[in-house]
Amino acid sequence: MSTRKTSLTDKQAKNGTSKYVLERCASVNEYYDIAFKVMLLGDSSVGKTCALVRFKDGAFLGGNFISTVGIDFRNKVVDVDNLKVKLQIWDTAGQERFRSVTHAYYRDAQALLLLYDITSKLSFDNIRAWLTEIHEYAQKDVVIMLLGNKADMVADRVVKKEDGEKLAKEYGVPFMETSAKTGVNVELAFLAIAKELKHRATQQQNEPKFQIHDYIESQKHKSSCCGLM
Ligand SMILES: Nc1nc2c(ncn2[C@@H]2O[C@H](COP(=O)(O)OP(=O)(O)OP(=O)(O)O)[C@@H](O)[C@H]2O)c(=O)[nH]1
């Protein structure tokens, strides 16, 4: 965990602010009913940190790219069916040299958001290797969601949306395309995960199972008027 400070400092330096540290202290005391650990995974530069900052702060970290060092986390409490659900979201370094550090955190995670970059074929091709790693190190019943990020970069797209859908179907995981830059589907991805985890933890025997795929589709359609996809 000695690496966490380094990555925070790097990203703060980029923003010229130390507000993240203050926010983190405040959020430690924020009231919640139930908490879950979520991890962001995927190749370096696919947009894991930006997706987290978009969800947490509603902002986009543009400018020069500074790679995460090791692992870092941020908390966010969301309302799910009148319960306060705290998501402790771990932002991992995509670079190969930090893999052994991040492996140690897999086992505690209840959900994994696995990202690729729609403008990078390599990041998409590497998803299979990430899934192999997940099956090796994560809990058997971990919730996995596949995200094709940078959906705003239409002109540079090299991975078709249908290819993302096909891969997700093959592994039986939910999928959507996101943009940390415009915010498209970022909140929906985290909320769908929060709902799935909350339902798993509190579900009564006679209650119908929460269907994450159906939820995502219904929300996407509901929001299509407002720029979501
Ligand atoms: N256009 C666009 N750029 C993005 C998006 N998400 C991230 N970026 C840019 O992509 C670069 C990498 O983003 P990061 O969030 O730092 O990537 P990361 O996956 O955390 O990378 P590592 O920390 O090395 O694992 C940065 O220059 C971001 O500004 C997006 O949705 N759209």
Automatic annotation (TrEMBL):
SMART domains the UniProt entry points to: ARF, RAB, RAN, RAS, RHO
The keyword Metal-binding is annotated on this UniProt entry: yes
Molecular function as annotated in GO: G protein activity; GTP binding; metal ion binding
Cofactor: Mg(2+)
Source taxon at top rank: Eukaryota
SUPFAM superfamilies: P-loop containing nucleoside triphosphate hydrolases
Enzyme Commission number(s) from the entry: 3.6.5.2
Family: Belongs to the small GTPase superfamily. Rab family.
Protein name, entry field: small monomeric GTPase
Originating species: Perca flavescens (American yellow perch)
